[in-house]
Amino acid sequence: MTRFPLTWPSPRCSLVGLLSMLVAACASSTPATPRAKSATGERDTAIVHEPCDKDAASAEKVDVNGDGVPDIIHVKQDGREVCRVVDLNLDGAIDAFIYYDARGAERRRESDFDRDGRADEIAHYERGAVVLKERETNFDDKLDTWDFYEGSRLVRRERDSDGDQIVDQWWQFNNPNDEKCAIVATDQNADGKPDPTSVVDLCAES
């Protein structure tokens, strides 16, 4: 995988109905599908950094705290900003790369939340609104969680819980008022499909 530079110097119903919804959601094209699965059903889990030429001569560097190290770098092409490099906590390490479309709206953001020099999340935007977040949650430097948004609300999630590059969990967030409520189906027999006996409602009354 491609690492972040560490420092600035260059070099949701019935269970049957729910399962149908989950399968249909997985086949849906909205939001955009993550990088295509292979013929074997494997998901591309590589974390790929999109180039942002922070060392370009035309890049505008901003030193927010006056320590001589740039905290924000605006990278421009043909007079418009195409990407931005940001050190949010002013510690000299890059926290995020932000990318913009031709209209100036954010289209992609790579974030390093644990400050290890590697991206933990890649967020994709359409018309400035988030539609998909690809996440690495278990510190193995591979994507394992795909969160899908509609109207900026998390509506479903796909997970590779065992690191074999095949989705084995499907989450449907069925309560707009509580983001912790979800119905989760799991593939327990490795056939690539959610199993009816595996469905759990995280907010069901006990």
Structural key phrases:
206 residues, mainly beta, Outer Surface Protein A, domain 3, twelve-stranded antiparallel sheet, 1 helix, elongated
Major beta sheet, strand line-up: 1-2-3-4-5-6-7-8-9-10-11-12
Number of helices: 1
CATH topology: Outer Surface Protein A, domain 3
* CATH architectural group: Alpha-Beta Complex
Instruction: Give the mean pLDDT.
Output: 86
Keywords: Signal
InterPro entries: Integrin_alpha_N
Protein name: Secreted protein
Tell me about this structure.
6% of the residues lie in helices and 31% in strands. It is mainly beta and 206 residues long. The chain has 1 helix and 12 strands; from the N terminus they run H-E-E-E-E-E-E-E-E-E-E-E-E. The longest helix has 13 residues, at 15-27. Strand 4 and strand 5 form a beta hairpin. The protein has a single domain, classed as Outer Surface Protein A, domain 3 (Alpha-Beta Complex). A 12-stranded antiparallel beta sheet has the order 1-2-3-4-5-6-7-8-9-10-11-12, with helices on one face. The protein has one helix at 15-27, and strands at residues 60-62, 72-77, 80-86, 96-100, 106-111, 121-126, 129-135, 145-150, 153-159, 169-172, 183-186, 200-201.
